[in-house]
Amino acid sequence: MILAAAAPASPADAWLERAPLLLRDALTGWLPDALRPWVAALLSIATILGVFGLLFAYMTLAERKILGRIQNRPGPNRTGPFGLLQPFADAIKALTKEDIVPRAADQVLHFLAPVVLVALSLIGLAVIPFGRNLVAVELEASVLYFFAAGAATELSIFMAGWASRNKYSLLAAMRALAQLISYEVPLLLSMVPVVVVAGSLSTTGIVAAQGGWAAGVWPHWHALTPWGFSAFGVFMVAALAESNRSPFDLPEAESELIAGHLTEYSGFKYALFFMAEYLGMAALSAMGVTLFLGGWQAPLAVLEFIPSYVWFGMKLLLLLLGFIWIRATFPRLRIDQLTRLSWKFLVPLALVNLVNGGLWAVTSDWTGAAGVARWVVSALLVVVPFVVLGRSLTAGYGPRTYRYASP
Amino acid sequence: MTLLLAILALVCLVPAVAAVLVRNLIHSALLFVLAWLGLAAFYLAVGAEFIAFAHALVYVGGVSMVVLFAVLLTRPGRESALPAPSAQRALGGLVAVSLVASMLGSSIFWTRLPSVEPTPPVPLRRLGELLAGPYLVALLLVGLILTVALIGGLLLAAPRRPSEGGDA
Fold first, then answer.
1. CB B62 to CB A151 under 8 A?
2. Which fold has domain B1-74?
3. Are residues A56 and A150 both part of a single domain?
4. Which ipTM score applies to this complex?
5. Residues 6 or more apart from A323 whose CB is under 8 A from it?
6. What part of B 5-34 touches A (C-beta under 8 Å)?
7. With 60 as the cut, is the pLDDT of residue A118 above it?
């Protein structure tokens, strides 16, 4: 009784914290030893599919609701209470619609594109640590694995666009390639300083490096350092472009290209593209949380009683809601503006940040006045390039003058 | 292990051969992506995790895009539409097959393969230390060569000013 009454020594021992692992052991414990790892792997796959499938379903609803509210209309509210059953109604509709494949289309590639896209969007989730000890696959180079898996997604968008034999789809395919080549570079460059400072290419190692608090209150999250803040910004902008979300949804720009690579898709294949977009967005956001926002670490020591996976979920939802907000706020870029933003602004910023991150790693033992100097230098290395590059990027573009009719 | 390697060899070779044989350039580029993925799986099978992911990232994510872009932006020449006379094609095929066969044959039969002890895979940290230490000069030289190639490509592709007499 005394043992049961004693408070857990560390947050890692709390019952809620270990609940997923206990559940897994309870489900696999009766199996023979040879089968156990296989069943455990299948269980983690099923969990990821289930959780992210539901997340996808309710993200579509949340997006429509929030976009509706921002545009001063109610959004879907007819299917179930508050429209909560809308995603399932949509799924039934997508499943029962006729699947049309154009006669001129490349049949094999036209079919393969959505399948490959969903598969590639999912496999990146395998290396995300969703909580303490909650990672499906532990790899030494898991960050690299994640980006290798994600890099091929635009390839399937290209396949979709090219295989449709439609001029709008083909234009979308070209745009998808241009966008990928442009934004893969800042995405990877913004991740490199994190690897340098954390000294690890594994996602669990990077999360572990962000544990603890400076002066007891300031978490060691990478986003809360000058170089990390800059890298986080570049990462999120590039992630927005990689997941083809507004304002970077040029491959499917409906006002120019009908629906781009989606023009010739209907029924469940269209739904698969939709699913892949949300899964890719969730995967990149999860990576952003892991690399910059401390992963599953709690922001304050007193808040550690909340389980780590809940913290991860909250941070993930925060980033996803940010994506929706951005979609409701910014107009779509032009293709030349898109590539210029990457090559003339994000890439140089990320390159300077590389030096900044290296400096931060070298000066990690500076304390006192030297520690303050370290922060000031790092902040200057972020602000000065940002201002200089931003000015050169927007030179000759404004400020816009508005003229109103006189009363 | 041998069976796995045989399957992976098939995964690499079949798309590679098919890529050479198909007429459609886009198809052959996509088949090459499959072959590159097979190669990455091969690296993974022998324990070179880092190389496998870097290979997938660079080739599937980067090189394939550039290849597809080049295919889409260039038009096939007029003469490639007409097949060459059959005698010429037969001669060409004969030359190509005998050349490849002799090269492969000589390299397989005349190379004395040392019996290799299976070495444990190099840990990632050690790999990084080696690249930043003893092999730093080589690494920098590779980077320099690639940068020079990039600048050269830019110079070739950049539109000439009318005063220089270029046609575009």
1. yes
2. Four Helix Bundle (Hemerythrin (Met), subunit A) (1.20.120)
3. no
4. 0.74
5. A240, A243, A245, A281, A285
6. 26, 30, 33
7. yes
